[in-house]
């Protein structure tokens, strides 16, 4: 019935997580924090974004004063993209990563990933989709070729450059 369907859907909510170039030195600790929090890594892929791809990923911020700096940062080194699955995965991952600004994160969420591994407002170690629609768009951005990969049966770990 509808109730069961909704619950099953919620149990399997998916989100997109990204370790940004400045977070790469801490990727082991970040992945450990993800695994300890009850989020399941369904897919994981390391890639280096071009400047164009970084701008496309963050196109919602095109008009912001920090857009160029953000695109430069996101294309300055490799990223690790992960598709995470859990009940309430979107909210769970946003809570674990913490507020956007590292300074605010250190004050308000001292145990968050950004508080621990961020540097400033741009270099804040990780990204998380903030809604169902952005989760879907961003998962497609990094895993377009694997959107219908079976869950739980096998886990896809790919090392490569997205085309
Ligand atoms: P979020 O990553 O916490 O969702 P958004 O407002 O969506 O925050 O911003 C996207 C990214 O743009 C941030 O993660 C950060 O890297 C960068 N950014 C956001 N606000 C600022 C700012 O005021 N100065 C510099 N960079 C910023």
TrEMBL record:
Protein known as: DM10 domain-containing protein
Domain of life: Eukaryota
Organism: Marchantia polymorpha
Full protein: residues contained: 90 to 252 of 388
Family: Belongs to the NDK family.
Residues reported in the UniProt entry to bind ATP: 20, 66, 94, 100, 114, 124
Localization, UniProt: Cell projection, Cilium; Cytoplasm, Cytoskeleton
Active-site residues per Swiss-Prot or TrEMBL entry: 127 (pros-phosphohistidine intermediate)
């Amino acid at each position: 019935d509808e109730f069961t369907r909704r619950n099953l859907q919620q149990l399997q909510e998916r989100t997109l997580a990204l370790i940004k170039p400045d977070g790469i030195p801490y990727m082991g600790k970040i992945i450990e924090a993800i695994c300890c929090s009850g989020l399941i890594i369904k897919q994981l892929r390391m890639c280096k974004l071009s400047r164009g791809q970084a701008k496309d990923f963050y196109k919602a911020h095109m008009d912001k004063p920090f857009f160029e700096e953000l695109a430069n940062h996101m294309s300055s080194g490799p990223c690790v993209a992960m598709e995470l699955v859990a009940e309430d995965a979107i909210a769970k991952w946003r809570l674990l990563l913490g507020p956007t600004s590292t300074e605010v994160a250190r004050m308000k969420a001292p145990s968050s990933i950004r508080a621990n591994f961020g540097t400033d407002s741009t270099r804040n170690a990780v990204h998380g989709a903030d809604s169902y629609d952005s989760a879907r768009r961003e998962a497609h951005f990094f895993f377009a070729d694997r959107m219908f990969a079976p869950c739980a049966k096998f886990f896809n770990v790919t090392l490569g450059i997205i085309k």
